[in-house]
Write a structure and sequence with these properties.
811 residues; alpha+beta; Alpha-Beta Plaits; four-stranded antiparallel sheet; elongated; disordered N terminus
Length: 811
């Protein structure tokens, strides 16, 4: 008996077992596989197409990344509008600080005196600064305690900056510290931090430090005398151990002068002889003080005189000069300044003072009338627009020069990033369009997007924009080659994939940036100008068309969008209350945009309106887009605020009574009713532009489609000339933005088409697989039936053979 070949055992989808070729000798399973393989060729073709599309989708993903990088490389150099020009590298500024003195002494390095940071909104130019004092935080100390962890044994209540704190008899110095710090949290924090300084094992001091500079802390006992027991107060409600007085920062800037105030440098003391404070002066010395034509002479100043003597001499001379009536308001005084003093000469009537000093005494004392500027903090961000100063150290007599210039290195870096990003995208395009230079056919190295119309259109568009350059700019700065960015020499390349990439001539680019930064900016960026400074650029897009003649903007229907009343103490007090509210009288009415609103302020019956009820009446009056509310004024008071959310301006008219005059409404913001490009002077023909609030957007009928401007004025305006040029960077940025648009972009469309094809092909493959499985089963069933028939025939043949053999065996 032949051994059973288990390889011929087959189980079909219904779980039926059969043996291939047992009767016929035919391996029908292999035969069916071969037949089905032939029938599956269309499926294999579709699956290969799906795989190919997936490769293309992945390649488009790579392209999207490269284009996004190229777009981002232009984000800060294509002229986008941002607050303070924060995203415009061409407006980026850098600060350079130097120090100098006029007395021959060596000044400290600028970096030791202050730090400077500048925002893009800072103006180009230079400033000067003399730091006379840095701000200091108030710091006080307790007496010394032998232990920080032993119960203090006294009780009481005290306040730190108004916040009440209690001491129990069992509290330790550590507990006091913790209670003070716990009070320095939340909405009503004290602004004072406590710490313990351990001098030695038996010497511990509680130190209180104000969290902010320039403001003194207030300490007071409210029950008992716990602060006296701690040694923070001296028993007479004064601070006992002041480690550091609160001090404001004091400095001069840009040579500004104070016409009615002179002061000296900080000097070592009021009782120090002038010969020590002002050496080298010839004594006795003299000088004059002139106030608006009246002159007083201060004579016979001796070298042994002190600063106090000098102050007295000035005041005595003024008082003794009966003819100098205008100088009568002038006086000298000694003012403490930390560990030193200053001589101050002021005129209380704000008359202009001039000093005449031939002896050199006042110069030696550093007396001048430079305007002293003070801040409570050492971080000064409101002195020069866009400039933040951090004061580190005072040094009188040292002038810090601060030069603010363009940060050309930032622009240079951005341009280099653009070239790198463009080259990466160009290499990608070259890879997917590469053909054998001999045969003109694609090769194994050619990318999967070969023949893509999307890539062809992209390559043509980028080539067009690079070649065309900027629009409307100087002929000397129209294309990249003019600033040192040109195409590589393709004939010299070893790698054909680098064809038509860009390279930078560093010297030429640096020279262009240094000598013609504005022209380089216009080469890359959208450059806008308006004949009226109240019209400013908000945005533009790829449809914003250049016109050599520019565009004329007309604005009309300008009026209040929001109006607010004067501030009052209470929003719930009756409006007849002149102390806590607006002090309206009687009854009356007003109209808002033609709708009448009545009010009651007669002071009778306790039912007068309040700011809140007035706001409710206005809101409920049904005036289209108009609402009102009683809101905080930003401090402790309240005001009535009326708003409109439509393009119809607020028109508020008094009909009867004094409500409007009592409210004293002021306009907080304005809106534009209508605007046009090149139309009616009153802006009424608004088919070329749309308005929202005070924002005006030009549409396709206006030519400069997508141009968006902001009007900050408060009245109608006509004939505003709008001009702009379009840099190459702006064009490329907008073109790529359109290509990458998630709904309409060409790259998105190409990917969507491939995904749709794959979805359709996947559905077809699934349907064909079902049919092929059925066909396979049908073929298997037929082969199984044939095997069964052959087996039956074999059985019959064997039976006949056995009968025949038996018959002939009997003969």
């Amino acid at each position: 008996m032949e051994a059973l070949n288990l390889n011929s055992l087959k189980v079909d989808a219904q779980g039926r077992v059969s043996f291939s070729g047992l009767s016929s000798g035919i391996d029908f399973q292999a035969t069916v596989d071969a037949i089905m393989a032939a029938r599956r060729i269309p499926v294999d073709t579709l699956e290969a197409r799906i795989t190919g599309n997936e490769d293309k989708i992945a390649a488009y993903g790579d392209l999207r990344t490269l284009l996004s990088t190229l777009k981002e490389s232009l984000r800060n150099i294509h002229g986008a509008v941002s607050v303070g020009n924060a995203t415009n590298a061409f407006k980026s500024k850098a600060a350079f600080a130097t120090t100098s003195r006029t007395d021959g002494a060596a000044p400290a390095a600028a970096g030791n005196l202050l730090g400077v940071s500048v925002a893009n909104g800072a103006a180009l130019g230079n400033h000067s600064l003399e730091i006379r004092r840095v701000a200091a935080a108030h710091k006080v100390a307790s007496d010394t305690f032998a232990s920080a962890a032993t119960a203090l044994g006294f009780t009481g209540t005290y306040t730190v900056n108004g916040q009440s704190i209690t001491i129990a008899a069992t509290d330790t110095l550590q507990d006091v510290r913790d209670r003070i710090n716990n009070a320095n949290t939340g909405a009503n924090a004290t602004g004072v931090t406590a710490s313990i300084v351990t001098i030695s094992a038996s010497q511990n001091v509680l130190v209180l430090t104000a969290d902010t500079t320039g403001t003194s802390m207030t300490l007071a006992n409210t029950s008992g005398t716990p602060l006296d027991s701690l040694g923070l107060l001296d028993g007479a409600d004064a601070i006992k151990n002041e480690l550091q007085a609160a001090a404001t920062a004091r400095f001069t800037a840009d040579g500004l002068v104070d016409v009615d105030r002179f002061e000296s440098d900080k000097l070592s003391g009021s009782s120090v002889p002038l010969s020590t404070l002002a050496p080298g002066v010839t004594y006795p010395a003299s000088f004059t003080i002139t106030v608006n034509g009246d002159t007083v002479t201060v004579n016979n100043i001796q070298s042994t005189d002190t600063l106090t003597d000098l102050s007295d001499d000035i005041n005595t001379a003024i008082q003794a000069s009966s003819g100098a009536t205008k100088a009568a308001g002038t006086a000298a005084s000694i003012v403490a300044d930390g560990n030193g003093v200053r001589l101050v000469i002021t005129n209380t009537s704000t008359e202009a003072i001039t000093l005449g000093d031939t002896s050199g005494l006042l110069d030696a004392l550093g007396v001048d009338n430079n305007l002293i500027i003070e801040r409570t903090t050492n971080t000064v961000s409101d002195l020069f627009t866009g400039v933040t100063l951090t004061l580190f150290q005072a040094e009188e007599g040292t002038t810090v020069g601060i030069d603010i210039d363009r940060d050309l290195s930032s622009v240079r870096s951005q341009i280099a990033d653009f070239v790198e990003a463009y080259n990466a995208a160009k290499v990608f395009l070259n890879t997917h369009s590469y053909v054998d230079p001999t045969t003109g056919e694609k090769t194994d190295a050619t990318g999967v997007l070969f023949g893509s119309s999307t890539l062809t259109a992209l390559e043509q568009r980028l080539g067009e924009l690079i070649g065309r350059g900027a629009i409307g700019v100087s002929a000397d700065f129209t294309v990249l080659a003019q600033i040192g960015i040109d195409f590589v020499d393709n004939d010299s390349l070893d790698d054909p994939l680098l064809a038509d990439t860009l390279e930078i001539d560093d010297a030429t680019l640096d020279a262009a940036l240094l000598n013609n930064p504005a022209d380089v900016e216009r080469l890359f960026a959208f450059d806008f100008s308006s004949s009226d400074p109240r019209v400013s650029l908000l945005g533009f897009n790829g449809q914003t068309a250049y016109d050599a003649s520019g565009y004329v903007l007309n604005i009309g229907g300008v009026g209040p969008a929001q109006q607010s009343s004067k501030s009052v103490t209470s929003k719930t007090a009756e409006i007849s209350d002149a102390v806590n509210s607006i002090g309206a009288t009687g009854t009356g009415s007003i109209t808002i945009n033609g709708t009448s609103i009545s009010y009651d302020a007669d002071g009778v019956g306790g039912d007068d309106d309040t700011l809140e009820t007035l706001a409710t009446k206005i809101t409920n009056a049904g005036i289209t887009g108009v609402t009102a509310s009683a809101v905080s004024d930003g401090g402790s008071g309240f005001k009535l605020q009326i708003n409109t959310s439509t393009q119809t301006k607020l028109d508020i008219v008094n009909v009867a009574g004094d409500l409007l005059s009592s409210l004293a409404l002021v306009t907080d913001s304005y809106l534009v009713g209508s605007a046009n490009i090149g139309g009616n002077a009153d802006g009424s023909e608004d088919l070329t532009a749309t308005v929202s609030g005070n924002t005006i957007t030009v549409n396709e009928l206006g030519g400069a489609e997508g141009l968006k401007v902001l009007y900050s004025g408060d009245s109608d305006l006509s004939g505003v000339q709008l001009d702009f040029t379009i840099g190459m960077g702006a064009d490329i940025f907008n073109a790529i933005d359109a290509m990458l648009n998630v709904t309409t972009g060409s790259v998105t469309s190409a990917v969507t088409a491939l995904e749709d094809q794959n979805e359709l092909n996947s559905d077809r493959v699934e349907q064909m697989e079902v049919r092929l499985d059925l066909q396979r089963q049908q073929l298997l069933d037929k082969f199984v039936a044939m095997e069964a028939a052959l087996s039956e025939l074999q059985r019959i043949r064997d039976s006949i053979s056995q009968i025949t053999t038996a018959i002939f065996a009997d003969r």
